[in-house]
Amino acid sequence: MKTFKRLFLSKILKDEQGQSMFLMAFTLSAVLGLSGLSVEIGHGYFAYEKLVASTNAAALAGGAAMPNTVTAATYVQTYSSAPGGLNVYPELTNVVATPTFLCLTTVTNSLKTPCVTSTGSSGGYNAVRVTQTANLRTWFGGLFGVRTMSLSATSTAAWRGGTASPWNIAIILDTTASMASKDSGVQCSGTQISCALLGVQALLSDLYPCTMGSNCTSGGAAFDSVALYVFPPILASTTSKDTTCPSGTPTHEYYMVPTLNSLWTYQVMNFSSNYRTTDTASTLNTSSGLAIASGAGSCAGITAPGGAGTYYAEVIYQAQSDLVAKQALVTGSRNAMIILTDGDATASTSFSGSGKTAVFSSSSQLQPSAAGALNGITGNNATSYTYPSAVGECGQAVVAAQAAATAGTAVYTIGYGSPTSGCSTDKTYSQSVTTGGGSWAAGDSPCQALGAMASLPVNFYSDNASGCAATVPSNAAITQLTNIFHQITATMTTSRLIPNGTT
Questions:
Q1: What is the tens place of the pLDDT at every residue in 377-389?
Q2: What is d(CA 130, CA 128) in angstroms, rounded to the nearest whole number?
Q3: Which helix (DSSP H) or strand (DSSP E) does residue 24 occupy?
Q4: What whole-number distance in Å separates Cα of residue 98 and Cα of residue 457?
Q5: What is the mean pLDDT of residues 44-58?
Q6: Mean predicted lDDT score pLDDT of the chain
Q7: SS (HEC) of 73-108
Q8: Do 87 and 190 have their domain in common?
Q9: Strand pairing partners for 158?
Q10: How far apart are CA 107 and CA 99, in angstroms?
């Protein structure tokens, strides 16, 4: 009996049937665990990439809104993955987006983007660093005691300092008699036209005259090109008095619309890119006609002898035509128009310039007198405000600027001493339009005209000297002409991502 028990136990102990079940169970658990771990790693990586993408978007949005750090912080939250943001992902929880504003020397030196405040003064920031933290609920991590993973991503963006495409820029300056008046001292210690030219110099200092690495004065390819226009028109043969040093005074003529005398011109300087010798040059090229016209160096630059009053619809159409022609020659370029004036268009057919009265059209559409007629013209012609006409002159400028904006030109307007009453030729007869910048109708003011002329509300600026404030709050805080021109060039560039360790 004992022998039987020993044999039975020995048989059981030696029998290997069923042992593979334990081995298979162990192996299957390991395989499933490793598979789950692999899936979890992929899950975490995919979520992390989403967090990185939204952090990049938040940083770029914040950079685009600078130097206004309040707006920039709002944009960071808007484009983040935090609750209420545009890049919320269900798998990411407890997301916190934190912006930190920085003043980086490398950005100042390499991108020529100084540290400024929201009002354009020095001492602010030129970059934003965004850090986002989030939790990710795991799918299989609970099997290993890990129910959530902590994720973090950081992105840094320089505020609008990266150029995406070359620009063709037409600057239109008011050179009527009022611009020869002495500034109050808020803008500068000289005349209004000299203060305006300081703004033009600021613009030329910010632009990129030539393609990277080339020399702008020795055949290098142009990048940002600038042309300069004035109104009233001038005798074409005398434009060199504005573009050579010492500066002189060109012969100003009167308005002849719609066909300007072939010997006259609104354009002082054709599109040029030699205003600085290189992209990194810190001073303007005093051999450049454009730089000279802007008052660079010891040259006086453009003057304001005045003349036929203010009427700028025709110069807008001319500048836009030239921009279109220039854009056709520069692949991938964009167009911009900057108009600086008080905006009160009141040129009169009774004005005598060079011994002749201003001519507004071949069909004699003239401003009606109190009796409803002028020079024998009555009926529809006496009240017509369609270009060209001496009726509804501010409205004609709004329509001209709107046409440029519709064609793709970014139209910027700067009110310099722009009043909140005026545009007398539009008091009864004028256009009634809604534009990208605002609305315009008969009876509106020069300030409203300039707002409506801008292609976007954010493209309208003003010195607010006569109660005319920019409609966008961030723009309303920028009233110095030099800062306004700096801000305009900033809007022509884009925010760009830079390495997180940039100093």
A1: 333 445 788 888 8
A2: 6
A3: helix 19-65
A4: 29
A5: 88
A6: 83
A7: HHHHHHCCCCCCCCCCCCCEEEEEEEEEEECCHHHH
A8: no
A9: 127, 496
A10: 18
Q: What is the pLDDT of residue 361?
A: 54
| Claim to verify: residue 152 and residue 171 sit in the same structural domain | no
| Partners of residue 99 on adjacent β-strands | 130
Backbone angles phi, psi at 197, to 5 degrees: -65, -30
21 pLDDT more than 70: no
Q: How far are the Cα atoms of 221, 312, 357 from residue 400, in angstroms, in the given order? A: 32, 9, 23
SS3 435: coil
In a domain, 503, yes or no: no
DSSP string, 342-372: -------TT-EETTEE-B--TT------TTS
286 is a domain residue: yes
Answer yes or no: is 224 within a domain. Answer: yes
Handedness of CA 36, 38, 41, 45 (dihedral sign): negative
Using a pLDDT cut of 90, give the percent of the chain over it.
Answer: 50
Whether 334 is covered by a domain: the verdict is yes
| pLDDT at residue 19, rounded to an integer | 55
Question: Which structure tokens are listed for 198?
Answer: 């300081």
Burial class (CB in 10 A: 0-12, 13-18, 19+), 239: buried
Are residue 144 and residue 292 in the same domain, yes or no? no
Do residues 301 and 432 share a domain? yes
pLDDT band for 180, please (50, 70, 90 cuts): very high
161 neighbors 107 (Cβ within 8 angstroms):
yes
Domain with 76 in it: 22-162
Do 413 and 304 sit in the same domain of this protein? yes
The answer on pLDDT for 315 being more than 90 is yes
The tens digit of pLDDT for each residue in 208-265 reads 887 654 556 555 567 899 999 999 999 999 999 999 988 789 998 888 888 888 999 9
Instruction: Retrieve residue 273's tokens.
Output: 């890119």
Check: CB of residue 170 under 8 Å from CB of residue 336.
yes
**Tens digits of residue pLDDT in 392-438:** 999 999 999 999 999 999 999 999 999 999 999 899 989 999 999 99
Q: Could you please report the per-residue DSSP string of 124-162?
A: SBSEEEEEEEEEEE-SSGGGGT--EEEEEEEEEEEEEEE
218 shares a domain with 156: no
Find all residues with CB under 8 Å of 194, minimum gap 6, and list them. 183, 188, 295, 300, 301
Do residues 358 and 347 make contact, with C-beta atoms less than 8 angstroms apart?
Answer: yes
User: At 467, which helix (H) or strand (E)?
Assistant: none
Instruction: Name the residue among 13, 185, 49, 107 with its Cα closest to residue 502.
Output: 107
- Residue 312, helix vs strand vs coil: coil
- pLDDT score of 378: 37
